[in-house]
Design goal:
Layout (H helix, E strand, L loop, with lengths): L18 H27 L3 H21 L3 H18 L13 H20 L15
Length: 138
């Protein structure tokens, strides 16, 4: 049986986010897209330092979004923007132009960035219920 009372976060009805929270998530989505674009340009320019710089920048945006909003949604929004931007940049144009080469650095950037997005969304600051700092249920 559950000990969740009427004041439990699980028992509260879902509400749409406030306008400020929605604007923050949209801004974080766009910031993640910019980080993806900048990382795509930097990672190939100065290998391996550029790759590390691009991944560190992406992780900073993901984790910073989680701490700025106080929830995991703050890490998911820039991660979604990053993934959308990077996937759009991997497609080739009819002229044959492309941004990502077939080298190992490009694959490390793509897979490493996606892994960082999952890690930061999982480890990021989750919402804590109101109350004391003691363990819940005591």
């Amino acid at each position: 049986m559950s000990n969740a009372g009427p004041g439990s976060p699980l028992a509260r009805p879902l509400r749409p986010p406030s306008a400020g929270r929605a604007a923050a998530h949209i801004g974080l989505f766009l910031l993640g897209a910019v980080a993806g674009l900048a990382g795509a340009l930097v990672q190939a320019a100065w290998f391996p330092g550029g790759l590390l710089l691009a991944l560190a920048g992406a992780a900073g945006v993901f984790l910073g979004g989680a701490y700025a909003t106080g929830g995991r949604g703050g890490a998911v929004a820039p991660a979604a923007g990053w993934i959308v931007a990077v996937i759009l940049l991997t497609t080739s144009r009819p002229e044959g132009d492309f941004l990502f080469g077939a080298g190992g650095g490009s694959y490390l950037f793509l897979l490493g960035g996606m892994a960082l997005a999952v890690i930061c969304a999982t480890v990021g600051a989750g919402r804590q219920p109101d109350g004391g700092s003691a363990r819940l249920g005591k």
